[in-house]
Amino acid sequence: MCSSRDRTEAPSLLREGYFDEQGLTKSALEGPTFLYLGNKGAGKSALVNHLDLELQNRYNSFSTIYQLEDFSFQNFSKIIRGDQEPEAKFPDAWAWLLLIIALESLSRDEGVWHPDAVSYNETVNSLKQMGFMPNSSLRHIANITSRKTFKLTIPYVFESSEDFASIDKVNDIPMFVHNMKRIICSCRTDSNHIIMLDGLDDILTTRSVQYNSLGSLVFEVDRLNDLLKQNGVKLKFIIVCRTDLYERISGANKNKIRQDKCKYVDWYQNPRNPDRSLLLDMVNKKTNFGGDFFRAFFDFKISGTPAPKYLLEQTRHTPRDFLTLMRKIAEVQREGERLKPNLVLSGARIYSTDYFVGEVEDELEGYTKSRPPKDWIEFIGMFGKRRISTRDLELKARHLKYDIDEMYAVLRALFECSAIGTVVNSGNGEHYTFRYRNRNSNFVIGNDISIHVGLRKALNIP
Fold first, then answer.
1. pLDDT in tens, 440-458
2. Which pLDDT band holds residue 18 (cuts at 50, 70, 90)?
3. Alpha helices (H) in 77-197, listed in sequence order
4. How far is CA 258 from CA 36, 119, 321, 340, in A?
5. Using only C-alpha atoms, what is the Rg of the chain?
6. Pair 37, 241: CB distance under 8 Å
7. Spatial separation of the C-alpha atoms in residues 228 and 43, rounded to whole Å
8. Are 414 and 367 in contact (CB under 8 A)?
C-alpha cells in the first residue's frame, strides 16, 4: 500500500485512490496529532506519500519527506561534542537537524516575512555555506556536523549578540540551536509547511543507544511543534513509526504523547462481519468496480467459510498483506476463467510461501544473533503443530543447543508482528490472541503459542 513504487508507477492512485476512512490526512493537517503508529504494511508510508502528493497540488503548501532508513546513529552521537553521556546530547542534536530542515522549507517559501530580515537571511546563508542547503538529507547533515574538521559558520548578527559573547564559536551547536529557534519563531507566512519523517521501520537493532536516540527524536518533535504553534508559525513535523518500535524507545512523556498526539493506522475489524471490513472497502475503491467487488467475484465458501472471511484470516489485517494475497490469487487465475475456491486456495498457498514467510523473516532482523531468522522459523516448524507449549519449545531448544534467551526474544518478535499469537486462559475458558487484534496484548512466557495460518501454510502445518 504505499510506497515509493506506487508513487512512481501510479501517483494518481496514491492521490485520488487513497482510502482514508480513519481520517488520518485531516488529523495530520489540522490539530496536534504528529505521531502515526502502525504495524509493518499498515500504510504509514502511504500516508506520508499521499500527503506529499496532495500538498504539492496546493499553491500555499510546502511538504518534504525525510527518510531515516540509512541514518547513521554513530555519526549522530558525535554531533554535540563534550564529555556528557550520549543520551544527554540527543535532544540538542535532533533540534539541530530538525531546525535546519525547517529553515530549508521556509527558505523555499517566497511569501515568508520576518521582522528582522537581516538575521533571517544571514542564518539561511550560513547554513548554505556549511553545506546543509539546499536539499540535504538528515544523514548528510549529521555526517557533516560529526566531522572533526567541522566548524560553525556564525552569522554576523549572532556574533554581535550577548549569547555568543563567551562561547566556543567553533562547535557550540546548542547556542546556535537557541538562536535558530528564535529566528524561526518570528517567521510569518500564509503557507503551510509539513515536514514528514519516515523510514524508522528499518532501524531495528539490538543496540539500546538507537532506541534512546529515537525517544529523544519523538520528544524533540513534540517540543518543537508546540513551540512553533505557540508562536504562530505554520510549520509542523510528522513522524510515522512502527508500533513495536515505539514501545521500545525511551522517554518519560511517551505515553502522554501516545494518548494526546498520536493516531494508530489500524485496519482490524472483527472478521465475523467481513462485509464491514475496511480492507474490503479499500479494494472496492481501488478496483473502481462500481459495485460490491467481493459479492460479484467471491460469493462462495471455502471449507465452509465465506470467501471474504477466509481471505481476511490469511492476513494480519494490513493493506500490504491483503493486497498481496489478492494479487497472488489473480496470478493463478487465467484470463476469462471464473474464480473458484480451488484458485483461491492455490493463491493463498503461494502468498504464504512467496510472501508471508519472507515478511516474517524480515521482522526478525535485529532480534537474532547466534542464528539467522530462517533457522528460527524452521525451528518452530519442526513441531508440525499449530499450537505449541513454550515448555516444549524450550526443551527442544536446549536439546539442539539453541540459545534460550534468544529463543524468547524471537518469540516476542514473532508475537509483535502477529506471526504467532498466544493462548490465554480466562474465566471463560481459553481464547487466542494476536497482536493485530489487540495492540495492548503482550507475550507472556508460559502461555502456549498459536501459529498464524499464513505462516502455517508455508511450514506445511495442517
1. 888 989 999 999 999 999 9
2. confident
3. 86-107, 117-129, 138-146, 156-159, 173-185
4. 9, 37, 26, 44
5. 25
6. yes
7. 28
8. no
Task: Tell the residue number behind the cell numbers 521500545, with chain if given.
Answer: 248
Give start and end residues of each alpha helix (H) in 314-371.
Answer: 319-332, 341-350, 357-363
Nearest to 61 by CA among 105, 25, 28, 23: 105
What does the pLDDT read at residue 250?
A: 75
**1 — pLDDT class (breaks 50, 70, 90):** very low
Model pLDDT, residue 270: 75
Q: Which amino acid is at 301?
A: K
Per the CB < 8 A criterion, the answer to whether 281 and 21 are in contact is: yes
pLDDT above 50: residue 437: yes
Give the C-alpha separation, 369 to 357, whole Å: 19
Closest by alpha carbon to 201, among 246, 152, 171, 139?
A: 246
Query: Could you tell me what percentage of the chain is helix, strand and coil, using 3-state DSSP and rounding each to the nearest 5?
Result: 50, 10, 35
Give, in degrees to the nearest 5, the angle at Cα 36 between 216 and 277: 155
Average pLDDT on 346-354 reads 96
Number of other CB atoms surrounding residue 127 within 10 Å: 23
The three cell numbers locating residue 276 = 464491514
DSSP, collapsed to helix, strand or coil, labels residue 428 as: coil
Q: What's the mean per-residue pLDDT of the chain?
A: 87
Q: Count Cα neighbours of 178 within 13 Å in the Cβ-side half-sphere.
A: 9
| Distances from the Cα of 187 to the Cα of 56, 92, 116, 229, angstroms | 22, 21, 9, 12
What is the predicted pLDDT for the residue at 75? 84
SS (H, E, C) 233-269: CCEEEEEEEEHHHHHHCCCCCHHHHHHHCEEECCCCC
Residue type, 60: N
pLDDT of 203: 63
| 262, 266, 272, 276: CA torsion to nearest 10 | 90
d(CA 340, CA 360): 29
H or E element at residue 196: strand 192-198
pLDDT for 88 equals 75
Handedness of CA 89, 175, 261, 317 (dihedral sign): negative
Long-range residue pairs from 4-11, CB within 8 A, at least 24 positions apart, any chain? 4/45, 4/49, 6/46, 6/49, 7/49, 7/53, 11/53
Furthest CA-CA distance within the chain: 80
Neighbours of 179 (CB within 10 A): 19
